[in-house]
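Q: Focus on the chain.
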Amino acid sequence: MLTVILCDDNAREREYLKSLVLGWASESGTKLTVHEFSSAEELLFSYSDCPPDILLLDIELSGMNGVELAKTLRARSDFSQIIFITGYPDFITDGYDVSALHYLLKPVRPEKLFEVLTRAAENVSRLQRAVVFKTADGIERLPVETIIYAEAFSHLVSFVCAGRSCEVRCTISEAKAMLGEGFIQCHRSYIVALKYIKTVGSRDILLDNGVRLPVSRQLYKEVKTAYLSYYGVI
């Protein structure tokens, strides 16, 4: 179930966007709820009651504009998929520092919005995936998106992220199932995120952070194929 927020101070524009979002949901078989707001201030007042997966924000809002709103939300460590709507191309450069997914020009074309909403839903799904494990203090959730690689040793698997690692009592096969799409096993003891691979050699993999991981002879072809496929080469 996705939560989508529409924020536009023009009631007719909101109604049009809502009809498109519901049309995309029907066509794609996606379950969602839609919340509408006429101003940034109104949205912020109710924000904690309806945390969104996807935000469609009009940039030219009266009062606080859409870009200022997005910056406020990002300052709260909000990672919603933001799609800006604008009637003026000149505004498109204003929101790059809030990591907007896309900018759509008015009048919004249905096929273009459908395409962007599909990408947003895929991103939400990926961000929601996580490895959940017990710690001395309770239970911790490690987003799959942050994991660079996993290394198995003894009866544990170490999930390595930038600046930290977490050890979980499981097998390499169980770890592979937890990580899912976007990862490839390159060795009996290693699973790596395809997006962090810099180069693939016949004996090892070089990651973006300079770490090298071994590649077994039996898995080399599968790793190479997965890597090329990930970047659309094959």
